[in-house]
Amino acid sequence: MEAGQTLLVGMDLCRDFSQISCYNNNIFEPVNLITDMINDSEMISMKMAVNVNTGEWFFGEEAVDNAAFFEEVGMVEDLFDRAVSSKPVEVLGVKIKTVDIFEKFFRKYLSQLKRYNPNATIKKLVITVEDTNINLVSTIFEALLRLGLNRDRVSVIDHSQSYVYYALSQKKELWMNDVALFDFGSDGLKYYQISVDRKHRPITVSVGMTDYTQRLNLDLFKTVYVEQLRYIFETIARECLYKQIVSTIYVTGKGFEKSWADSVIKELCVGRRAFKGQNLFCWGACYAARSLAGETDHFNDFLFLSKDVVKGTVQVSACTQAKYGPVSLINAGELWYESDNSLDFILDDSNEIEIIVKNEFKNTRANYIIVLEGLKKRPNKATRLRLRARYIDNDSCVVTVKDLGFGEFFAGTDRVWEKVINISSI
What's the CA gap between 147 and 127, in Å, rounded? Predict the structure, then answer.
């Protein structure tokens, strides 16, 4: 790689392990990085420990060894759950903020990129997690910001979205029909199915998930025979695929690491393609980084349906470059917790602002007028306003207008007008 090159990075961050990958422009696909130098593995355990006297941190098996031999070294327990609940972690009587721990983890983890290319910088980093709890997402953003990675260079997506990015980055014949995924993670088995609606413009992509963790989980490995495990999985798989037109089946997760389910997977492959591996979500995040960085237009014609993406495009009627028309603030398909944009403009002989909202999934639209009641009177074109649109969840958009005045000539009042728009009602 040449000096000064930028990296497109994907990371799969789970409760028990993590992976990191970079997009390789020579082979046109991601490559995983070796992160566990002791075991020569692409996966690193999320086990962490800290010396409460010196502040030195240990990761993976090194953390376990140090905690076993040194009384002043304590293991960090339930890191993800603590981040979700915004509670500090207590280690040997010392309370540590979860964001401080994530900062230490990312600092060490991202240093592996220097071994891959010592002179490159990160252009886009996409982290995928099983569930995008807002507290967890905020903790990740804050920890990376401390390392100099601003939010415009970082995105956090859930496993279903990284699955979509991975599946739709493969050869088209692999996703001509629905695409199935059996994910046997630390919690148990979950089934995801991608459906592509080519009749809609833009093409909509949805992912359905069914939770089978109560029927098939890692605890069963301790209590039942392999033949029973195989029978339970086959029964579930047949239920999932019954009368479904599925082109491809993916199988991933630590529960499938051994070969106990291979015979069932082979039977499911009759008339279908099947792939088994442990890097699907990590590579999906890497493909997402390539897309979100603008390195490919492959996904421009797709609109993802997900609990984390917004359904409404938000625009304002304004005059730009001598043309009057809608100017977009937020586009449908963006992640709701990343949808926050502002626009400054000058008011021209009016005290009203027209907001246009389009529900792209229902193909409907609505116009809203924000009347700037009480706006201080000034000469025409002597009032500068700041219009901000942001989502507070995946269905609620808040539009605010703030009076900024006009430089040194007319002081701003900082008065704010607000409109809350429910997208599903459009």
Answer: 15
